[in-house]
């Protein structure tokens, strides 16, 4: 058939369509700048093969994943960005790339690199198209690409991506079957492969797919010259052709070859509302969407060619965003995307906004008159009565699509009583009953309102005017519930015949609350009453009320007492909606099954319910609607929930009470504050197609990683994360996040996500829908698989998205590193083996040396022990030397002899120092050195020590200089340690100073670091041989001896300076040395000292005197000699014959002396001869002195004999050990014989005085004698001793303990136990009481009393007296005199 005949045939069948008003079922969703779109002027839309939506705008290209936009724009200087921001078209191109057209040309976008290229030449030359100035690129439904050229000489190119072949179609004037023009403005291919092209000449042509010959032409009309756009072609599913000119007033051409229809749609009544067409597409229902400028969208039904208009309503955000539509695009899911001129994107699919919504629009007079809906009722015609919350009664004629409103009028008694309607109900007589708020009950028959109101005092009227619920029972009675007046029953004649009210008495057979939310009669003809306090059941057969309440102890009780509504399902189960969920009552068990938000409801508060089918219940909540699917197959009910929100078309999330209805056709109505929804549950389908999961972003340290971007010196993403299957990371890139999305545009906010890092996460982790990101920190090196899955409320989709991730270990954990470690370990083992062999050899040598050293050490210990023992033995002959010399010195008057004897005495003391030094070294090794400080003039003490070496100075002709900046300095110091220090320093100075040299001792007092403390600086300098600097640090080490000249012999042991340093350190001081070889040395000692005011005397209490001097009282001895002419007997026990002879020889003049050479013989002689006193050495064979003393004190026959112990062993611990055995006194060798003799005489004198006192007491009071206990005898002895020595200022606790033959510690315990006072306090108390007696006598002055009671200082005496009697002595004396006068 010729083309002209076909055209005439089509024109003869021209058909005219009609138009109808806009259909409100089309509810759009919107996207704009507020959602992240770069600009609201949308020029083109495309969905790529992976599921991303691409939107070209006036200002940039946008990629949308359903949640957020990623924008691409031109970046100056970046050749991989767009060449312009104004996007004109988006087209799929060869090699899975996108061709983006801007005002300055085409850009090729590579999804793998996310980069743009303006280099078309490389690709175009590859496919043998040598003119890159193209008009458009088109991809047909068979995958072929068509290049439309700007150049009129180039024609049309077809590129087959499979065969890599390119075909060029050109116009030939001589051949009418060729295209009519080389300037092709658009191209499309139908399902049969026919190629449809339009040209700038206004001709539409069809080409054969095999021969590329034109077999059909339509002349659509030539366009004005200079017009920027040409004809565009759209071929629908039925292969019908639609042609239009964008942005030009030309309408749209419709050509259906099958129906033989050619129609030109233009603006006019019953047709288009504008001629300016911008785009055309077809939806899945076959409707044609015609996008217009300022005319919205014109929907053409192809069956009858009727037109509907989809327009923008300013007060309806679910309407079309704007009436100026720039482009249309239908994606593979059937969503229609509409780009607008200034309002972004509007998109539609029947399953996106699933629920038809009716509300009031100011811009639409035909819309719902009032939006706040409370209740519904359906009449016999299927039309709906709507009760509103202030908008009266509305009648919706569904067939006509109109609303009629009934309002209360104060001037019309036949009007509605109140505009607030709470409940509607149509009874069996088809009468409409209207429950109002404060208007009572109305009955409407279609023309007349009859009013039922409360009349106070009239029982035949309803109980109040606030009607809350209405229903009808099986007998035709009307059940009317109120807000606060209980339940009313109206009979068939509609007279009030019964009223049930709660009067506060729970025991009555009645309601438990007057607030009635709902009332129904179930299939058993029992009436269920929903109240504010539980659920009441009226059993009709015996007219008995049952009550159901919540019980915390019973999980199968009613879930909450605040109930809202009630429903009986087809299985006879009673569903109750409450403020805490749904309770389902089963008559068979009498128990409730409870559901709440934890089970899947969108909210705990459930408002209303409607049953759709046996296994489907719909419920309204303050958080949307819920479709509850019930599985009744098992013994227990199982439930599945599908929830919906306002994004799916609900009038809002919140719904009103009693505002639900199920129509006879199975539709559901739910009302709320923004209108109501009407839907058929069977038509509410979930999205059938599972969404495509895709990775959308990869972040390292909270920064998105770009494709090809270097992070830490390396590229992490060689291509887009959405196209990656594997990801390689370094160990220091292991803080990362992966973002993902399901490319679902059907309410993406309802998609649920879970992810899991296999190899790290044990279970699936729920992801936030708003973030959709999984973050990981510090993953260990290794191989992982990241998995993501998506799901809905109903199930998890089976398809998962995975990404294999390899985190490379650091270089020290690589295979090469471990190989190196193995080699290193082997090498180390070999080295250790070699070293071990060497070590064993060396150890053998060391062990040998160590054994030798140990042998030498043991030898040294034996030497030291030997020297110590020898030192003990030295003390005895020293005593025999020093004691006679001391005595002879006192008796000789010749100066020369006396000088020689003094020399002997000095050298004996020097020898004693050497002996003590050995003993001190032994103590220093065992850390037994202790300070024994006493008061004294330290300057004078050092001076005397220094001049003790004058004989050495004379022998060696050494000049000695002593210089002190202070004449005297009284302080408390250890005399013995100070003597040793000076002895060692001076001994070394003289020893290493050659003849003719000099030795100096210089003393200076300097200020110390602490407040009130000074330091005594002692310098001992000599002009001796000196020492090298490298030896100075060693001279204080034990046994160190410097190399000496051959002419000098070092006779020292090397321990003197070591002991000296320890003594100085013990006193808190320090010692330093300066020395030069052949010039001499200077030792500097700094000792902390505190000046004591005055001399060495002290007025301190008795207990502060540590070792008081023992005075010998010659008068007492003389009296004793006069009283007793017979000598007293002393037993001398000493193993050294010479010392024993010496002591005996000196004691023989005053005592009878008995000798014993050891302790055993001494014990025998003590028993045999009962001596008055025993003097015993400690260190003896057979029985030592300690054991002898213990034996003597333990035996009643000898316990009264005082014992004086003699020993060469020094130290307080040795003294305490001796005194604790019961010894009376203790002397250290060498000792002064006069002191020994005085101690013996004093002890014997005291013993004699006690004996006389005791004898006197017996003679005076023989009748009162009683046997005292040991403690009483002891205490009497103490009192006698204190009384005897009360005038002795030097009488101390030590002396007291010695006199009673007990240790100081034993004395302390006994006195404290008996008196509650310490020994010192007790002695002082006795002194104070004696002072009080003396003051009361009045014969002595205060000064005399002070000295009588043993105080040296009157000031201290007054202070102690005041503390004892709370009065000074003078006042006490005056008070005593006044009392005596009275």
UniProtKB/TrEMBL annotation:
The keyword Transferase belongs to this UniProt entry's keyword annotation: yes
Domain HTH araC/xylS-type: 1276-1375
CDD domains, alphabetized: HATPase_EvgS-ArcB-TorS-like, HisKA, REC_OmpR
InterPro entries: CheY-like_superfamily (IPR011006), HATPase_C_sf (IPR036890), HATPase_dom (IPR003594), His_kinase_dom (IPR005467), HisK_dim/P_dom (IPR003661), HisK_dim/P_sf (IPR036097), Homeodomain-like_sf (IPR009057), HTH_AraC (IPR018060)
Enzyme Commission numbers on file: 2.7.13.3
Keyword terms, alphabetized: ATP-binding, Kinase, Nucleotide-binding, Phosphoprotein, Signal, Transcription, Transcription regulation, Transferase, Two-component regulatory system
Annotated catalysed reactions: ATP + protein L-histidine = ADP + protein N-phospho-L-histidine
Domain Histidine kinase, first and last residues per copy: 869-1091
Protein source organism: Mucilaginibacter pedocola
Domain Response regulatory: 1129-1244
Signal sequence extent: 1-21
Modification 4-aspartylphosphate, positions: 1177
SUPFAM superfamilies per UniProt: ATPase domain of HSP90 chaperone/DNA topoisomerase II/histidine kinase, Calcium-dependent phosphotriesterase, CheY-like, Homeodomain-like, Homodimeric domain of signal transducing histidine kinase
Molecular functions per Gene Ontology: ATP binding; DNA-binding transcription factor activity; phosphorelay sensor kinase activity; sequence-specific DNA binding
Protein name: histidine kinase
